[in-house]
Amino acid sequence: MSKDLLTLKGVHTHIGAYHILHGVDLTVPRGQLTMLLGRNGAGKTTTLRTIMGLWKASQGRIEFNGTDITALATPQIASMNVAYVPENMGIFSDLTVRENMLLAARGAKHAGQMDDTRLKWIFSLFPAVEKFWNHPAGKLSGGQKQMLAVSRAIVEPRELLIVDEPSKGLAPAIINNMIDAFAQLKASGVTILLVEQNINFAKRLGDTVAVMDNGVVVHSGSMKELAEDENLQHSLLGLAI
Fold first, then answer.
1. Which entry of 16, 73, 113, 151 is 20 to 30 Å from 57 by CA?
2. What's the whole-model pTM score?
3. Domain range spanning residue 111?
4. What is the mean pLDDT of the chain?
């Protein structure tokens, strides 16, 4: 079994006339949390969407668990125990929290068939999901919607969790709750790929890091090393952690 659960090799992505990814090389080690950092417009979200098959790679290869998934459709990739939480969260506003969760629990036809032990674990991570179980999801706050989005992604066991900017627009207390939840998810054996702009979030959670600029990965290595090297932070991100 390879130590890397996910690898991208020379991946290019075109969206219409625009060439967004210019040969992305990325490795996501099994059982670790990999941060994908970079300035706005660097290609981070495009990378996630290309991994999930929402946009097709025009060149290169994407492997998950040793299987070439480059040309697979999104439902096929999701069926391999891969979950994706997009930046807009993808919540169904007119449905209740329970109904949103049920839609993601592919093995259940009604709420009573959802894994009760797993639900209790999710409720321990995100108490608001239990509190607003029968409320319309559209009535939740931004932080509560983000909790629901992550909860929905993990309502069934996942081998890989891909999340785009989970802390965006959240209050500090909610961010701390989210950090604790991702730490527990990682401890449970889930491999996580996370795009994040909150550098404190990245520093506290990341094992490995890849930094993107202009559609390519320009740096990869230990998150701890990047967090301790102020000159490297300035050169890659224009900021200091």
1. 151
2. 0.91
3. 94-157
4. 91
